[in-house]
Structure formats: C-alpha cells, structure tokens
C-alpha cells in the first residue's frame, strides 16, 4: 500500500509559501493569510482514505514552514464534516493486513494528529452534519470548533469492536469536555448532538449551517490579523504544558513571554497604544 510516503510532498516553488499548493485528495486554498482545507467527497460524507490521511499529515507538517498561512479552517464539503475512515478503502483492507501493517497504519493516523497539534497556526474546525470516528478526531485535534445544531459527533470506535483509544482520543477528549463525559462517549460510541456538544464545551459556538463557513473564516481572519508569532507560541505552550507541573509551566511561560517581548509585534503594540491607534501586527 502506498500510504506512507517517506518525505513530505514536494511543494511548488518556495517552500515558505503554500499559496500555489494543489492538494490531490481534498481542496486547499489560501486567501488573506487563511488556509481553507475542505474534505471533498460529499457523496460519501467526506470519508478519509489511506492517501488522504497521509496527505493531510504531510500538509500540516509543511504548514510549520508556510509564511503565508496564519490560520487554518478545516471543513467538509456538502452538509457533513467527515464520516471517518472509508469503509471500503480502509476498513476492508485493514482486515487483511498483518500486525506490522496495522501498526504502521495506526501510527500514521496518529502522526496526523501530532502534525495538527505541532503546526503553529491555530486550526478552526467548521463542523456540520456527520462528524464521526476519525472525523471526530480531526475536529478534536483542532484548536477551535464551530458547529451547528444539526451536527452529530461520534467517537464510534467501540461500535466496530475497537478501543475508544484512537489517535489520541483518551488524552485529548477529557481535556476538552472532562473525564466523565469523555468516558461516556468513548465507551458507548453514541452521537453527541450540536446543542449538547456546545453545552459540554466541545463546540465553542453554534452557527446556522449556511453561516458556518463564513463564521469560521471570520474567526480565522481575526487571528490572522493578530500577532501570529505570539499565537504560535500560545499554541505551543497549550500543548507542552499538559505534561508539566505548575512550577514548570510558570517557568516555561516566563521564557515564552520573554521571547515574545523581543518581537517587533510587541513593540508595534506599545507604540500603537501610546499613539492611541490599533496595532498593525506583521507576525515578526
């Protein structure tokens, strides 16, 4: 199976820019510092394949070097976000793999989540309709989640005889909605409706379906016009401090903040404040 390329995909032109990148297994565009990544198999509710997993992983890795992308919107075409791994293209072939092959696959899917958590840009997931299995993990691995009342999020791994521990779910989900609620969803595999997901803190807010993508892009644009170096540092510390005690976290944040104080954006903010103007951040 050709789903584990050894190196990130070759990007056209300067690797510091993703504006010209053309994805093979989803839609990708960059405008005004915001990249919109659209899972694009609406006739099947946007399932993932071996190849799309790998390309997503490689793209999120490449985003660490993309100077022209300040924030990312992740969404699905049609009226659904993502139905998870494709039953025919992934689930069926997995039943015929040997153990090393299965482990290579599960490590590769986990690497996608690692790439999402380690890319410096904030990721805003715009979730409508079905958000299931690996699709629910993609939303979970994002930094901000906007949903709709009709969305249905399900970590349904136990329903197909697998553990709820998939792609970091047992680590990420309790941190977002709490241990007891996460345990319920991961044990039962039941769907969580939009209103419940917002009440539990999975969604930051609910939008009307027709306004969802614009709301996500507006949120991303607001971040893209802010101090993007500082946003990247904030995301890094949110990730790193999970494994720290309070004393270590305070010291790490002291170092992070001192680094940010050396940026031009910090000086721009000060001078704008003195002049009673709005700062114009440039991300350096």
Architecture overview:
This protein is α/β, with parallel strands linked by helices. The chain has two domains: 27-224, 2-enoyl-CoA Hydratase, Chain A, domain 1 (Alpha-Beta Complex), CATH 3.90.226.10; 228-274. The chain is built from eleven helices and nine strands. Strands 1-2-3-4-6-9 form a six-stranded mixed β-sheet, sandwiched between helices. A three-stranded mixed β-sheet has the order 5-7-8. Strand 2 (34-39), helix 1 (50-62) and strand 3 form a beta-alpha-beta unit. The longest helix has 20 residues, at 99-118. It is globular, with a radius of gyration of 19 Å. The N and C termini lie far apart (42 Å).
Tell me roughly what share of residues is in helical segments: 40-55%
CATH architecture of the largest domain: Alpha-Beta Complex
Strand order of the largest sheet: 1-2-3-4-6-9
What general form does the structure show?
Answer: globular
Oligomer: single chain
Biggest beta sheet summary? 6 strands, mixed
Note the run of SSEs as H and E: EEHEHHEEHEEHHEHEHHHH
What is the CATH topology descriptor of the largest domain? 2-enoyl-CoA Hydratase, Chain A, domain 1
Strand coverage percent? 5-15%
Question: CATH top level of the largest domain?
Answer: Alpha Beta
Catalogue the unreliable spans. 1-14
Quote the distance from N terminus to C terminus: 42 Å
Task: Write down the domain tally.
Answer: 2
Q: Identify the CATH homologous superfamily of the largest domain.
A: 2-enoyl-CoA Hydratase, Chain A, domain 1
Alpha-carbon Rg, integer: 19 Å
* Strand segment count: 9
Q: Give the overall average pLDDT.
A: 90
Summed up, the helix count is 11
């Amino acid at each position: 199976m050709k789903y584990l390329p050894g190196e990130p995909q070759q990007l056209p032109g300067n690797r510091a820019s993703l504006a010209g990148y053309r994805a093979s297994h989803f839609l990708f565009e960059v405008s005004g510092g915001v990249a919109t990544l659209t899972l694009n198999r609406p006739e099947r509710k946007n399932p993932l394949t071996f190849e799309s997993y790998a390309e997503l992983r490689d793209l999120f890795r490449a985003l660490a070097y993309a100077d022209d992308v300040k924030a990312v919107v992740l969404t699905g075409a049609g009226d659904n976000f993502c139905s998870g791994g494709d039953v025919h293209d992934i689930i069926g072939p997995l039943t015929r793999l040997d153990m090393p092959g299965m482990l290579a696959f599960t490590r590769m899917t986990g690497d996608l989540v690692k790439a999402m958590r380690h890319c410096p840009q904030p990721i805003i997931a715009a979730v409508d309709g079905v958000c299931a299995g690996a699709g629910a993990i993609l939303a979970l691995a994002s930094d901000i989640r906007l949903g709709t009342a009709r969305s249905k999020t399900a970590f349904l791994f136990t329903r197909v005889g697998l553990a709820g521990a998939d792609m970091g779910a047992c680590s990420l989900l309790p941190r977002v909605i709490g241990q007891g609620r996460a345990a319920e969803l991961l044990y039962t595999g039941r769907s969580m409706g939009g209103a419940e997901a917002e009440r539990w803190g999975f969604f930051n807010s609910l939008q009307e379906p027709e306004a969802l993508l614009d709301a996500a892009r507006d949120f991303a644009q607001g971040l893209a016009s802010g101090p993007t170096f500082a946003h990247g540092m904030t995301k890094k510390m949110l990730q790193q401090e999970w494994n720290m005690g309070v004393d270590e976290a305070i010291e790490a944040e002291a170092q992070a903040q001192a680094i940010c104080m050396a940026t031009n954006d910090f000086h721009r903010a000060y001078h704008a404040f003195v002049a009673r103007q709005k700062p114009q951040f440039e991300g350096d």
